Amino acid sequence: MRSRYAAYALSKVGYIVQTTHPDSPLRPQNEIAWRKDLQQFCRETQFMGLQIVAAAEIDRQTATVTFRAILWQGGRDASFTEQSLFERVRGRWLYVKPLTHK
Asked: Angle, to 10 degrees, between the axis of helix 31-44 and the axis of helix 2-9?
């Protein structure tokens, strides 16, 4: 989770794409448009901090991470808390989807 947050903060769009599960419902079919949207989000957002609230391995291939991302967009607080689902694929943890998002 920390590496994905850092990738957003540093506009490392390739890393964000690589660490998103291929079956994620958030992964659009048009990768070029998705990359442009990610670049725009990274440019328009100030990444102020990340707090890991909890992490739990469900089994050897599945885990959850609950985090709070502190963000600013257009001079407004855009922070949120999310519990995310991750799946291990070939030894690498990939982001699948949010389970909760506030």
From this structure: 80
